[in-house]
């Protein structure tokens, strides 16, 4: 794998991984490389710092988690996020693995419009996006309501 920093015509800089530099050239030539911020396909390699590996005889930096400097604020933030999650899930219907079919039916007016959430494979999600069906991942894990305690 190889990583490049790319810059679009709107001056957005983003990182992207390819199997090889040839893969990058091929995908760019076919118009498959686009800015994730604005969708611009006019992208070029940006100047980037070289990735230099540390010497083998050096100890790895200490990467242990550090305790929060403000545990009360962290507790309040986690409680607020849990409340938001609960409210979002209460206002939508869980459709499980039927998510792609349900979302498509709602989009095409075959079923009444309502907020739904469920599970979809990457291929199903890609297909929904290509069809113009509005979908977005939830920022938290969702259990089947039948599996909750």
Automatic annotation (TrEMBL):
<dbReference type="Pfam" id="PF06676">
    <property type="entry name" value="DUF1178"/>
</dbReference>
<protein>
    <submittedName>
        <fullName>DUF1178 family protein</fullName>
    </submittedName>
</protein>
<dbReference type="InterPro" id="IPR009562">
    <property type="entry name" value="DUF1178"/>
</dbReference>
């Amino acid at each position: 794998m190889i990583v490049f920093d790319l810059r679009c015509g709107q001056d957005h800089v983003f990182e992207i991984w390819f199997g090889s530099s040839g893969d990058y050239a091929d995908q760019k030539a076919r118009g498959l490389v686009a800015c994730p911020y604005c969708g611009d396909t006019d992208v070029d390699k940006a100047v980037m710092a070289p990735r230099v590996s540390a010497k083998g005889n050096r100890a790895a930096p200490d990467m242990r988690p550090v305790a929060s400097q403000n545990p009360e604020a962290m507790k309040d933030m986690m409680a607020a996020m849990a409340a938001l999650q609960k409210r979002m899930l209460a206002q939508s219907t869980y459709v499980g693995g039927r998510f792609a079919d349900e979302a498509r039916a709602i989009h095409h007016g075959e079923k009444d419009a309502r907020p739904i959430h469920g599970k979809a494979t990457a291929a199903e999600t890609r297909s929904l996006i290509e069809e113009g069906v509005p979908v977005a991942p939830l920022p938290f894990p969702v259990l089947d309501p039948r599996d909750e305690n």
